[in-house]
Structures are given as C-alpha cells and as structure tokens.
Amino acid sequence: MKLMIISDIHGIKTNLGKIKEKFQELNCDKLVVLGDLYYIGPRNKMIEGYNINEVESFLESMKKDLICMRGNCDSDVDITISNFPIINDLSLIMMEEHDIYITHGHIYNESNWKKENSILIYGHLHIPFIKKIETNYYINPGSISLPREGYRPSYLILEEKKATIYDIDDNIIQKEELK
Predict the structure, then answer these.
(1) What is the pLDDT of residue 179?
(2) Read out DSSP for 21-46?
C-alpha cells in the first residue's frame, strides 16, 4: 500500500492541484489528511489562496481515496458541511509490515505516546521530520500550506518499509527505511 499524507491545509488551495497530480502520478492508494482543513487559525494572517470552497471541492473530489482526521482548528460545522467522514483523535491503518497510527498531533505526539514498537504520524507542528526514538517512529509531513521554520510546503509518501518527505517541488526533505 502507498499512502500520500498531508496536513494543515488551513483553507489554502494553492498546492492542492499539485497534490492531486502527484497522487495520481505516484499511483497512491489513499490520501491521508491529518486535519486543520478549512480555518486559517487565529495566529495566521489571511493569505493569497485562501478559499475554503475550493479546499472542500478538492477533498470531495478525493473522497473515495480519502482518510481524514480532525484537527484542533476543525469545528463541528466543518464536519457537518463536509461530505466525507472526518475521524476524531486517533486512527489505525494496518499495513503488511507495520501498524500506522494517525492523528492531528495536538493530543497524541512524541511527548504523549505510550505504545511501543509503533509508528505515529501527526501534523499540527507544520514542521516536517522523521524521528526514531527508542522503539517508535514519529513522522510529521509538515504543512502543505503554512510551513514553519523556513521549510517549504511538504507532503509524505509512506510505503510498506519507507517514508519519504518531499517539498512541493519534489525535493526530498528526509527519507527513512522503516524497520
């Protein structure tokens, strides 16, 4: 199984066309969105490309391949208007080699995770990384719309034994063999 994982869209449509193209080009099986779909958030100024209707249309167009988590900026109204399921808190994707736990990251993250020998993938921080700490992998795809700390918008491709984070121009940010 090949997953494309993005996070923290925050209502910004700018890179979603590229994500859809890459999803199809790479023959991904599922698009996982780790939350913060529509609301730009109180700390972010309004920027070019903010259009929640186009973000909703993109997600709707991907719904047969979509796994969507609820983020800390996703309201009950967002869930009500979305024509696809949005999962609260934590979900599990079982792959042949690994069980992958997905979440937004404001509740479960490397500071608040107790399951050993696991892979936890979360957004929320807007900073891409792959870390191995003791028996666990912690992976963050960064943000497709509002990256922090000088990173470019980014996404993750997860295969059975490999995780690769790319920036929007397809440069590899980090790559890791998962053991």
Answers:
(1) 84
(2) HHHHHTT-SEEEE-S--S---TTSPP
